[in-house]
Amino acid sequence: MLKVTKKRFDIKILVANSTVSETFELEKNIVKVHGVLVTSDKDDLLYYRGTQKIEINKEEFFPDNYESKLLMSGINVSPKQRYYDLGGVAPGNGRVQILYKDLDDGRTVFAPYRVSLYLDCEMEDEL
Amino acid sequence: MTINLALEYIPRRMQELGYKGNYYIRFRHLVLQANEEQTIDAYNQFYYLVEEAQNVRVESETGIFDLSENTTNEMQYEHQSKIQIKNYSSGINHLRFIQVIPKHKTIIKNKK
Amino acid sequence: MMKEGVIITKISIKQKGERKHFQIKLPMDTKFIIGVEYGGRLIDKPETVVVEPAPDDGGHTPTFFKRNQLIGELKLQSCEEANWFYSADVLANDVNLGLADFSKAGFPVNDFTHGNKRTEEIVKIDAESTIIQGWYLDALGKSLNADIKYEVNVYVWINVEE
Questions:
Q1: How many domains does chain C have?
Q2: C92 DSSP assignment
Q3: What is the model's pLDDT at position B18?
Q4: pLDDT at B60 > cutoff 60
Q5: pLDDT tens figures, A13-47
Q6: In the list B59, B60, C48, C138, which could disulfide-bond C18, CB 3.0-4.6 Å?
Q7: Which subunits have 3 or more CB–CB pairs within 8 Å of chain B?
Q8: Which pLDDT value is given to residue B26?
Q9: What's the average model confidence in pLDDT over A67-76?
């Protein structure tokens, strides 16, 4: 039986103007990835300073320098519409890579912050 | 966790999670250098901390094991996903785990 | 449709006689392991390590068979079968490429000019194994009685069904 589930992966940005790259692995029973979304504990820093590349199973869905503001959803967006629809991606080897870049923008003051990548997935309930 | 407890616990836990008998089991005894920090990729695996573990911190998505940590109400022995290990000792330290590896066979056939 | 890929594992050696145990995780969509090969590089300054024999072969005749420097031993085991499925002596280069070469052409012999093209060793291991256990034992540091820093890369070729 297929069930909808959300996965969250966190990365920490500790140094200004740094690039943080991390690879996460989805559970074996995840059959499709439907959507993505990014959030942070310091939204303003994510909005003004962040860009990221996102790859699933080595397939690039968002290239380098794709602004984080384009993957953020505000509270005025209906909860069911917040995820960016990828159209149902097969996870392949299940590896999700995010390459996040933090850049000074002149308006914000850097402080270490967390960036979370959320994935809207479909999983097989029984093995 | 003693090894005996782990060996009783693991089969029931795997049954609970639906893996039944489709997993491999390995005993891992890590040797940590002074103040060494290590990250273990344990996605889709389980690491059970067994025997004594002093002066060490084991942190993962499922919880923390650190006898010097006082901001948590429970210690976690079952670790998954990314495991961060830190040796607090300024000498060699030892850490023992039982590693449980669910087989790839448990991938659903209709994944495509 | 089958796609091929390679998993690269780096083994870092710092002490003489060091034994390194490692595990290689196979991606979820792997069907088989189809080949294995190795490579490596020295991290310490080359002057501190005498691995290459002197270009002048010390007056030996061209038919003198020289000993190669053993860097270490590498073994790989799958979870499915007992015993190792791959076992190799890691060598830096082949010092006997100029064996029985009487030409005295003045053309220095080395792996890039006279060696065989290196290809992977063919194996067939079911990826059902999920992880591969590996073991590496240093011989270079031990034979020179010094802590030499180097890296050995293990390349595991896999095929993946699309």
A1: 1
A2: S
A3: 86
A4: yes
A5: 999 999 999 999 999 889 999 999 999 999 999 99
A6: C138
A7: A, C
A8: 95
A9: 95
Residue C153 lies in a domain: no
Q: pLDDT (tens digit, 9 = 90+) per residue, A76-123?
A: 999 999 999 999 999 999 999 999 999 999 999 999 999 999 999 999
pTM: 0.87
Chain C residue with CA closest to A29: the answer is: C28
CA distance A124 to C101: 65
C127 interfaces chain B, CB cutoff of 8 Å: yes
Sign of torsion, CA A120 A122 A123 A125? positive
Amino acid at B46: F
Decide if C11 is inside a domain: yes
Q: Least CA distance to A27: which residue of chain B?
A: B44
Give pLDDT tens digits for A44-63.
999 999 999 999 999 999 99
SS (H, E, C) A81-112: HCCEEEEEECCCCCEEEEEEEECCCCCCCCCC
In this predicted structure, the answer to whether residue A127 has a pLDDT above a threshold of 70 is: no
- Mapped onto helix, strand or coil, the DSSP state of residue B9 is helix
Pairs across A and B, CB distance < 8 A = 33
* Residue C25 to residue B41, Cβ atoms within 8 A: yes
Best CA proximity match to C40, nearest among C139, C143, C108 = C139
The DSSP bridge partners found for residue A40 are A115
| Interface check C160 vs A, CB under 8 A | yes
Q: Does the distance separating the beta carbons of C30 and A28 come in below 8 Å?
A: no
The residue range of the domain holding C13 is 1-44+68-93+127-148
Cβ–Cβ of C29/A92 closer than 8 Å? yes
Q: What is the mean pLDDT of chain A?
A: 94
Residue C102 belongs to some domain of the structure: no
B chain contacts of residue C30, beta-carbon cutoff 8 Å: 104
